[in-house]
Specification:
Strand order of the largest sheet: 3-5-6-7-8-9
CATH architecture: Alpha-Beta Barrel
Number of domains: 1
CATH superfamily: Metal-dependent hydrolases
Order of helices and strands: HEHEEHEEHEHEHEHEHHH
Radius of gyration: 19 Å
Strand content: 5-15%
Oligomer: single chain
CATH topology: TIM Barrel
Number of helices: 10
Structural class: alpha/beta
CATH class: Alpha Beta
Number of strands: 9
Amino acid sequence: MSLWTKLFGEKKELSSAGKLEWLTWDMHSHLLPGIDDGAKTIQDSLLLIKGLKDLGIHKCITTPHVIFGVYDNSKEEIMETTEKLRKELLASNIEFDLKCSAEYMIDDGLLQVLDKKALCLMPNNYVLIEMSYLAESNMLMEVIYSLQSEGYYPVLAHPERYNYYHGNFEMYKAIKEAGCLLQLNILAISGYYGERVKDTAHKLIKERMYDFVGTDMHHERHLNAIKKLLERYDVKDLLKNNPIRNATAF
Protein backbone atom coordinates (compact mmCIF):
# COMPACT_ATOMS: atom_id res chain seq x y z
CA MET A 1 0.00 0.00 0.00
CA SER A 2 1.39 3.38 -1.00
CA LEU A 3 1.95 6.23 1.43
CA TRP A 4 -0.69 8.25 -0.47
CA THR A 5 -3.27 5.50 0.03
CA LYS A 6 -2.42 5.23 3.72
CA LEU A 7 -2.87 8.95 4.19
CA PHE A 8 -5.91 9.60 2.04
CA GLY A 9 -7.49 6.21 1.42
CA GLU A 10 -8.07 4.52 -1.90
CA LYS A 11 -9.28 6.69 -4.72
CA LYS A 12 -12.95 6.05 -5.43
CA GLU A 13 -13.94 5.70 -9.06
CA LEU A 14 -16.83 8.03 -9.87
CA SER A 15 -19.60 6.46 -11.91
CA SER A 16 -22.83 7.59 -13.56
CA ALA A 17 -24.06 4.01 -14.05
CA GLY A 18 -27.71 3.58 -13.10
CA LYS A 19 -27.98 7.05 -11.60
CA LEU A 20 -31.22 7.88 -13.47
CA GLU A 21 -32.99 4.59 -12.83
CA TRP A 22 -35.37 6.34 -10.42
CA LEU A 23 -36.83 8.38 -13.30
CA THR A 24 -38.03 5.26 -15.18
CA TRP A 25 -38.93 7.31 -18.29
CA ASP A 26 -36.93 9.90 -20.18
CA MET A 27 -39.74 11.99 -21.63
CA HIS A 28 -37.74 14.51 -23.68
CA SER A 29 -35.09 13.48 -26.19
CA HIS A 30 -34.20 13.63 -29.86
CA LEU A 31 -33.27 10.05 -30.65
CA LEU A 32 -35.03 9.52 -33.98
CA PRO A 33 -32.53 9.53 -36.85
CA GLY A 34 -32.55 12.25 -39.49
CA ILE A 35 -35.83 13.87 -38.44
CA ASP A 36 -34.62 17.02 -36.66
CA ASP A 37 -31.42 18.39 -35.11
CA GLY A 38 -30.93 15.29 -32.97
CA ALA A 39 -29.53 11.91 -34.00
CA LYS A 40 -28.45 11.94 -37.64
CA THR A 41 -28.20 8.21 -38.31
CA ILE A 42 -29.47 4.91 -36.92
CA GLN A 43 -25.99 4.37 -35.49
CA ASP A 44 -26.25 7.67 -33.62
CA SER A 45 -29.63 6.64 -32.26
CA LEU A 46 -28.36 3.27 -31.04
CA LEU A 47 -25.33 4.87 -29.38
CA LEU A 48 -27.53 7.33 -27.46
CA ILE A 49 -29.98 4.61 -26.44
CA LYS A 50 -27.15 2.44 -25.14
CA GLY A 51 -25.96 5.48 -23.21
CA LEU A 52 -29.39 5.96 -21.66
CA LYS A 53 -29.48 2.32 -20.65
CA ASP A 54 -26.11 2.71 -18.93
CA LEU A 55 -27.61 5.59 -16.94
CA GLY A 56 -30.49 3.36 -15.84
CA ILE A 57 -33.10 4.57 -18.36
CA HIS A 58 -34.82 1.70 -20.15
CA LYS A 59 -37.97 3.55 -21.24
CA CYS A 60 -38.13 6.65 -23.40
CA ILE A 61 -40.69 8.88 -25.08
CA THR A 62 -38.63 10.53 -27.79
CA THR A 63 -39.81 13.99 -28.83
CA PRO A 64 -38.57 15.30 -32.19
CA HIS A 65 -39.10 18.97 -32.92
CA VAL A 66 -42.18 20.13 -34.77
CA ILE A 67 -41.49 23.68 -35.93
CA PHE A 68 -43.59 25.14 -38.74
CA GLY A 69 -41.44 25.64 -41.84
CA VAL A 70 -38.34 24.10 -40.24
CA TYR A 71 -39.21 20.62 -39.00
CA ASP A 72 -42.66 19.89 -40.40
CA ASN A 73 -42.83 16.46 -38.84
CA SER A 74 -46.30 14.93 -38.95
CA LYS A 75 -47.62 12.35 -36.52
CA GLU A 76 -47.40 9.73 -39.28
CA GLU A 77 -43.76 10.55 -40.11
CA ILE A 78 -42.75 10.45 -36.46
CA MET A 79 -44.44 7.09 -35.89
CA GLU A 80 -42.94 5.63 -39.07
CA THR A 81 -39.42 6.68 -38.07
CA THR A 82 -39.98 5.32 -34.57
CA GLU A 83 -41.01 1.95 -35.95
CA LYS A 84 -37.85 1.80 -38.08
CA LEU A 85 -35.74 2.47 -35.00
CA ARG A 86 -37.64 -0.17 -33.01
CA LYS A 87 -36.81 -2.74 -35.69
CA GLU A 88 -33.12 -1.79 -35.47
CA LEU A 89 -33.23 -2.18 -31.69
CA LEU A 90 -34.72 -5.64 -32.11
CA ALA A 91 -32.14 -6.60 -34.75
CA SER A 92 -29.36 -5.39 -32.44
CA ASN A 93 -30.76 -7.29 -29.43
CA ILE A 94 -31.18 -4.05 -27.48
CA GLU A 95 -34.08 -4.17 -25.03
CA PHE A 96 -35.52 -0.67 -24.80
CA ASP A 97 -39.11 0.56 -24.51
CA LEU A 98 -39.31 3.29 -27.16
CA LYS A 99 -42.40 5.44 -27.56
CA CYS A 100 -42.78 8.67 -29.48
CA SER A 101 -44.39 12.06 -29.22
CA ALA A 102 -43.10 15.49 -30.26
CA GLU A 103 -41.80 18.78 -28.93
CA TYR A 104 -44.17 21.34 -30.41
CA MET A 105 -43.02 24.89 -31.00
CA ILE A 106 -45.74 27.36 -30.07
CA ASP A 107 -46.58 28.80 -33.48
CA ASP A 108 -49.43 28.94 -35.99
CA GLY A 109 -48.56 25.44 -37.13
CA LEU A 110 -49.31 24.03 -33.69
CA LEU A 111 -52.79 25.57 -33.71
CA GLN A 112 -53.42 24.01 -37.12
CA VAL A 113 -52.34 20.57 -35.91
CA LEU A 114 -54.49 20.99 -32.81
CA ASP A 115 -57.52 21.95 -34.92
CA LYS A 116 -57.02 18.81 -37.02
CA LYS A 117 -56.61 16.69 -33.85
CA ALA A 118 -53.35 15.43 -35.34
CA LEU A 119 -51.01 15.79 -32.34
CA CYS A 120 -48.51 13.03 -31.70
CA LEU A 121 -49.36 12.66 -28.02
CA MET A 122 -47.48 11.21 -25.10
CA PRO A 123 -49.29 8.43 -23.23
CA ASN A 124 -52.19 9.75 -21.14
CA ASN A 125 -52.56 12.91 -23.24
CA TYR A 126 -49.47 14.86 -22.17
CA VAL A 127 -48.14 17.33 -24.76
CA LEU A 128 -44.64 18.85 -24.73
CA ILE A 129 -44.49 22.47 -25.92
CA GLU A 130 -41.65 24.97 -26.29
CA MET A 131 -40.95 28.57 -27.24
CA SER A 132 -38.11 30.36 -28.98
CA TYR A 133 -35.16 31.16 -26.73
CA LEU A 134 -34.99 34.63 -28.29
CA ALA A 135 -38.49 35.99 -27.78
CA GLU A 136 -41.53 35.12 -25.70
CA SER A 137 -44.53 33.83 -27.62
CA ASN A 138 -47.68 35.90 -27.20
CA MET A 139 -49.60 32.67 -27.87
CA LEU A 140 -48.41 30.78 -24.79
CA MET A 141 -51.50 31.18 -22.63
CA GLU A 142 -53.79 30.66 -25.62
CA VAL A 143 -52.06 27.38 -26.43
CA ILE A 144 -52.18 26.22 -22.80
CA TYR A 145 -55.90 26.87 -22.62
CA SER A 146 -56.57 25.36 -26.06
CA LEU A 147 -54.74 22.16 -25.14
CA GLN A 148 -56.57 21.89 -21.84
CA SER A 149 -59.94 22.43 -23.53
CA GLU A 150 -59.24 19.37 -25.67
CA GLY A 151 -58.40 17.26 -22.62
CA TYR A 152 -54.62 17.44 -22.98
CA TYR A 153 -52.01 18.20 -20.32
CA PRO A 154 -49.48 20.79 -21.56
CA VAL A 155 -45.87 20.49 -20.40
CA LEU A 156 -43.53 23.42 -21.02
CA ALA A 157 -40.08 22.18 -22.00
CA HIS A 158 -37.00 23.61 -20.25
CA PRO A 159 -38.55 26.79 -18.79
CA GLU A 160 -35.20 27.63 -17.21
CA ARG A 161 -33.76 28.31 -20.68
CA TYR A 162 -36.12 31.16 -21.58
CA ASN A 163 -33.86 34.12 -20.84
CA TYR A 164 -36.70 36.65 -21.00
CA TYR A 165 -38.24 35.10 -17.87
CA HIS A 166 -35.08 35.17 -15.76
CA GLY A 167 -35.95 38.60 -14.43
CA ASN A 168 -39.65 37.87 -14.09
CA PHE A 169 -40.10 34.84 -11.86
CA GLU A 170 -43.79 35.67 -11.43
CA MET A 171 -44.30 34.50 -15.01
CA TYR A 172 -43.30 30.98 -14.06
CA LYS A 173 -45.90 31.06 -11.32
CA ALA A 174 -48.52 32.33 -13.77
CA ILE A 175 -47.73 29.48 -16.18
CA LYS A 176 -48.11 26.94 -13.39
CA GLU A 177 -51.33 28.56 -12.17
CA ALA A 178 -52.67 28.30 -15.72
CA GLY A 179 -52.32 24.52 -15.40
CA CYS A 180 -49.14 24.01 -17.43
CA LEU A 181 -46.55 21.58 -16.08
CA LEU A 182 -42.81 22.29 -16.17
CA GLN A 183 -39.99 20.04 -17.40
CA LEU A 184 -36.38 20.43 -16.30
CA ASN A 185 -33.51 19.83 -18.70
CA ILE A 186 -31.18 17.83 -16.49
CA LEU A 187 -28.06 19.52 -17.88
CA ALA A 188 -29.35 22.92 -16.75
CA ILE A 189 -28.41 22.23 -13.13
CA SER A 190 -24.73 21.90 -14.08
CA GLY A 191 -24.33 25.20 -15.92
CA TYR A 192 -24.15 23.51 -19.34
CA TYR A 193 -26.41 26.22 -20.80
CA GLY A 194 -24.84 29.04 -18.79
CA GLU A 195 -24.89 30.36 -15.25
CA ARG A 196 -28.16 32.29 -15.54
CA VAL A 197 -29.95 29.18 -16.72
CA LYS A 198 -28.35 27.21 -13.89
CA ASP A 199 -29.40 29.78 -11.30
CA THR A 200 -32.97 29.82 -12.63
CA ALA A 201 -33.16 26.03 -12.63
CA HIS A 202 -32.01 25.87 -9.02
CA LYS A 203 -34.54 28.55 -8.02
CA LEU A 204 -37.35 26.62 -9.72
CA ILE A 205 -36.17 23.50 -7.89
CA LYS A 206 -36.15 25.36 -4.58
CA GLU A 207 -39.70 26.58 -5.25
CA ARG A 208 -40.78 22.97 -6.01
CA MET A 209 -42.07 23.90 -9.45
CA TYR A 210 -40.80 21.07 -11.65
CA ASP A 211 -43.06 18.18 -12.65
CA PHE A 212 -40.85 16.30 -15.12
CA VAL A 213 -37.18 15.75 -15.92
CA GLY A 214 -35.83 15.14 -19.41
CA THR A 215 -32.39 14.67 -20.91
CA ASP A 216 -33.21 16.64 -24.08
CA MET A 217 -30.44 14.52 -25.55
CA HIS A 218 -29.47 15.33 -29.14
CA HIS A 219 -25.99 13.87 -29.56
CA GLU A 220 -23.02 12.21 -27.87
CA ARG A 221 -21.82 15.52 -26.40
CA HIS A 222 -25.02 15.72 -24.39
CA LEU A 223 -24.61 12.12 -23.28
CA ASN A 224 -21.06 12.71 -22.06
CA ALA A 225 -22.06 15.91 -20.27
CA ILE A 226 -24.91 14.11 -18.49
CA LYS A 227 -22.51 11.40 -17.35
CA LYS A 228 -20.19 14.01 -15.87
CA LEU A 229 -23.11 15.77 -14.19
CA LEU A 230 -24.28 12.54 -12.55
CA GLU A 231 -20.80 11.98 -11.14
CA ARG A 232 -21.05 15.33 -9.35
CA TYR A 233 -24.72 15.71 -8.43
CA ASP A 234 -27.22 13.49 -6.62
CA VAL A 235 -30.06 14.59 -8.89
CA LYS A 236 -32.66 12.47 -7.13
CA ASP A 237 -31.86 14.10 -3.81
CA LEU A 238 -31.71 17.57 -5.39
CA LEU A 239 -35.26 17.12 -6.73
CA LYS A 240 -36.70 15.28 -3.72
CA ASN A 241 -39.15 18.08 -2.89
CA ASN A 242 -40.42 18.46 -6.46
CA PRO A 243 -43.45 16.43 -7.60
CA ILE A 244 -41.57 14.62 -10.40
CA ARG A 245 -44.02 12.51 -12.42
CA ASN A 246 -41.75 10.60 -14.83
CA ALA A 247 -42.24 7.25 -13.10
CA THR A 248 -46.03 7.60 -12.69
CA ALA A 249 -47.45 9.68 -15.55
CA PHE A 250 -47.00 7.18 -18.38
